[in-house]
Amino acid sequence: MKLTHAGRTLYSHKYGPSQEPGAQPRIPGSGWYTITETGHRDHLPAGSLSTSSSLSLHFYADAGRNQQIRAYITRFSPEALNSRNQAASGSTTTIDLGMRRDGTGDSTIGRRVGLRSTVTDTHGDSSTTTVHNAYAVS
Prior knowledge:
two-stranded antiparallel ribbon, 8 strands
């Protein structure tokens, strides 16, 4: 896990597979912060897909208030893949997107969702498409 503010790393720690988070980083003042975390799955057969995933939470912290990070976590559920996460050649694969957001008890927080897709090829070329305010969550 890494916590950054204004391009500066405030906290960084690498956790093991069964290790619980220890000390919690403190936010030094009001402003925009980013927490990033990457998870890896080990001991998979050679050539396995989905060996890692990452999450980035970008949020505004108010040092004068006790608050919860208003985070959304997206779940991707591709259909029609085999046990090695492969689709048939030339096929179209539908990916259901689910969203989890733990409540904060703050009714003033809107629940509007944007969608972003980044595709990166084996050469490192990438393309990102973003749909702002794609839908609302009740």
